[in-house]
Hints:
The structure is a single chain. The chain is of the alpha/beta class. 30% of the residues lie in helices and 20% in strands. It folds into 2 domains: 4-207, DHBP synthase; 231-313, 3-Layer(aba) Sandwich (Rossmann fold). The strands form 2 sheets. It has an 11-stranded mixed beta sheet with strand order 1-8-2-3-7-4-6-5-9-10-11, with helices on both faces. A 4-stranded parallel beta sheet has the order 12-15-13-14. Bound molecules: threonylcarbamoyladenylate and magnesium ion (MG).
Amino acid sequence: MITEIGTDLQHARELILNGQIVSIPTETVYGLAADANNEDAVCEIFKAKNRPTTNPLILHFDSLATALPYITNFPSIFEKLHTQFCPGPLTFVVPKSTLVSDLITGGQNTVAIRFPKHPILQQLLKELGRPLAAPSANLYGQLSPTNAMHVHSQLKDRIPYILDGGNCSEGLESTIIGLDENKIVVYRYGSITPEALAEVTGYLPKAKVHAEGTVLTSGMVKHHYATQTPLYLGFKPDEESISSVQITIGKHEFIADPHLILSENNQLEEAARNLYAILHSADALGMNKIYIEPFLNQGLGLAMNDRLARAAAKFS
Ligand code: TXA
Ligand code: MG
């Protein structure tokens, strides 16, 4: 199968209505989307990604009104968070209705729903009039894509079309939250920080980002988001650095080449937007090792450290 890249929204729409899978732009990372009401199409997502079917998918909606038939409860605290952050990079885990296939939820009785803000995706969702099931458009366990070329490098020949919406503006996956004993819990750190959630909830939500027992979210798997080149946290300015690439948050004059910088001005939002793209570039250099400086463990730094720790876990 030849994989085309283009900006033809109607073509993407027709493919999806015909039961095919299409890569779509979102503000976080590119997704691999299927008509959520077509089980055969949803099946193709798992095949194209080599993803285990035990790992549930997120449903994407244009509005809360369209989502309501697919869920049985949307707690009032979620409504407040939805008003504040949506459309945007926040995913809610809620009880599912019978409209949602077990294939999407991995057999769980909850479903993850999100309201993306990328204008092209919003238009596509409106024109489809139905939800899209979409995980990130990478091969299972590998780096997430933040532009069309990243998707192409991993999924070419596996999918017919990549709808090109430019570079993702956030660059990190959505924050996933649920409700536990009436309190907001963070299942996956992401673009919306716990501090930002606290401004609405009045308390800093607890994190449950490490799986105990069964894996609730694939982001909880210890090895994930990995580069092909072995990746390590920290610096190694010794003889090993001859065959390694270093990634730092801001400028460091003392570091040898090759050296990639996430944000010239030490800006966390910019670093988050560039993180996956820089990791893709570092990987493409074909060096023996990638060293990356960890972030301060707060705000977006939590989400980025979480991804890096999981990527590095594969090589430790
Ligand atoms: O930003 C994003 O969320 C991107 C874009 C494409 O929307 N999507 C994304 O999907 O990151 P994926 O499949 O790579 O990650 C979805 C996460 C997985 O860790 C999955 O296990 C979790 O959501 N998830 C899905 N349904 C769930 C549920 N019912 N309970 C808990 N976690 C769930
Ligand atoms: Mg993913």
